[in-house]
Amino acid sequence: MKDIFIPAEYEVVRNPDLCIACRVCERQCSNGVHEYDKDLKKMIADSTKCVNCHRCVCMCPTHALKIVKSDDTYKINYNWPVQTMNEVFRQAATGGVLLSSMGNPTENPIYFNKILVNASQVTNPPIDPLREPMETTVYLGKKDVEIKRDARGMLVDNLPPQLKLTTPIMFSAMSYGSISYNAHEALARAAEELGIYYNTGEGGLHTDFYKYGKNTIVQVASGRFGVHEQYLKTAAAIEIKMGQGAKPGIGGHLPGMKISDDVSKTRMIPKGVDAISPAPHHDIYSIEDLRQLIYSLKEATDYKKPVIVKVAAVHNVAAIASGIARSGADIIAIDGFRGGTGAAPTRIRDNVGIPIELALAQVDERLRQEGIRENVSVVVGGSIHSSSDVVKAIALGADACYIATAAVLALGCHLCRSCHSGKCNWGIATQRPDLVKRLNPDVGKERLVNLVHAWTHEIQEMMGGMGINSIEALRGNRLMLRGIGLNETELRILGIKHAGE
Ligand code: SF4
Ligand code: SF4
Fold first, then answer.
1. What is the tens place of the pLDDT at every residue in 472-495?
2. Does residue 19 have a known ligand-binding role?
3. Which of the ligands is closest to the CA of residue 18?
4. DSSP letter assigned to residue 223
5. What pLDDT score was predicted for residue 122?
6. Atom from ligand 1 closest to the CA of residue 28
7. Which residue, by CA, sits nearest to atom 4 of ligand 1?
8. Protein residue with its CA nearest to atom 3 in ligand 1
9. What is the model's pLDDT at position 2?
């Protein structure tokens, strides 16, 4: 329903000298913004429907379009910004919770941007990554803390199952349902080609993708959607989702319009009905309960699959991680408050949780203090923007990083933050067949592979500059980091010195 109180947020600007009325924009827009007016014999636009996904701008053959932020204004009021007023109007019209998607866009600090990386000079020279081997392979899972030998002096390998990654980057959980079949195919094939992993999220695994099982992490969330023995056994690892950075403390929500035939079959739920996964797992109210689920999953998969426990970054995340490390989990995944999602209540997304940088530093510190750091690997996600964020996260103590928003950007997402509408014009966060086919999985796979290759080269260059030739030597090496513009408390939590010290 159009709310007459809410003015258009964006304005569609069409250059009449360039527009040839080809109607491409009309066909490309799933929101019905563009229309050909037969009487006027020209294209017209309803800017109130525009979500600023930029599909029309990119597809217009004559570059006749641009989308601008509307300069329509209310009286200046720093206490009541326009967006806040519009949200009140929207809730007054609908009586509902404000829904949104993708990550938290608020102005909270991004600590990765306030951390600088060291470089070697003279006595500890840099390493040339083009001429010297630079090891980016990492193994995730519990490690032995001491070398053991048998009576013949041979090394005893008691390592539990590990995940081997050629580079410390994985594609984070995105469910089939929240994203399209073609997006999933692109992620699965890219993970296979790169020697890394993608993650099913809580939506089950489409049978077409069982062939990518050795590069697949399957998720077990509170709704248990699509979980069965074959699903678990097909995967390389199993992730128990206890929490998610975009919406800590609440469950998942897939709007009914995204539950197509195939999604309903894969998730084992009815078609067209909202899929709500509960906030808690109804069998987990303590670390002991969590341990039971971890060992049930290990038992079901003959102790051959590492088990990941994913939690949202919240105030007491270090204590939670300590419990998880003692619960038998092989890997802890921590998701920061900027993490993306297909649908979340706006207030939760923008106000709950803490930044991943602070959570990671505290978790690594706590696990080290308690002497259990090698019991688990730590993977972090929640707005990893670039290769330098990966380097900084590893130096703060991570073993690897999950990326999702960067991955969907590689697939063509323009961050319009309207995934929950199911009308993604780029064929990513939609199940509408006419939209899904806009994403070519061959092209998507190639772009994901390019992105991860590019980041890996940059990681190697940065490590070389530091005089470090392996991810292992970088992990937890906070001496390589300095803060800039951070106060004493922030520096203490991050466990780094200020630039110049
Ligand atoms: S796509 Fe471009 S040229 Fe074609 S009708 Fe739209 S604005 Fe005009
Ligand atoms: S995935 Fe699609 S709907 Fe979601 S933010 Fe990106 S472009 Fe918009």
1. 999 999 999 999 999 999 999 999
2. yes
3. 1
4. T
5. 85
6. 1
7. 22
8. 19
9. 59
Sign, CA torsion 359/361/362/363: positive
- What is the per-residue pLDDT for 138? 97
pLDDT in tens, 45-66: 999 999 999 999 999 999 999 9
66 DSSP β-pair partners = 13
Nearest-angstrom CA–CA distance, 278 and 282: 8
| Packing angle, helices 441-466 and 181-194, rounded to 10 | 40
Range list of H helices, 63-106 = 82-94
User: How does DSSP classify residue 161?
Assistant: P
Q: How many CB atoms lie within 10 A of CB 446?
A: 16
Look at residue 3 in the predicted model and tell me its pLDDT. Answer: 67
Give the SS3 label for residue 496.
coil
Decide: helix, strand or coil at residue 62: coil
Is residue 331 within 8 A of residue 337, CB to CB? The reply is no
Contact 338, 103 (CB under 8 A): yes
Q: Which residue, judged by its Cα, is nearest atom 2 of ligand 1?
A: 60
Query: Could you tell me which of 184, 191, 187 has the C-alpha nearest to residue 205?
Result: 184
Gap from CA of 426 to ligand 2 centroid (Å): 7
How far is C-alpha 420 from the chain's CA centre?
16
What pLDDT is recorded for position 365? Answer: 97
Per-residue model confidence (pLDDT) at position 275: 83
Phi, psi of 35 (to 5 degrees): -155, 145
Ligand 2 centroid – CA 164 distance (Å): 31
pTM: 0.94
Distances (CA, A) of 311 to 450, 458, 468: 29, 29, 31
Nearest-atom number in ligand 2 for the CA of 429 is: 1
What stretches in the chain show pLDDT beneath 50? Answer: none
φ, ψ dihedrals at 395, nearest 5°: -65, -25
419 has binding-site annotation: no
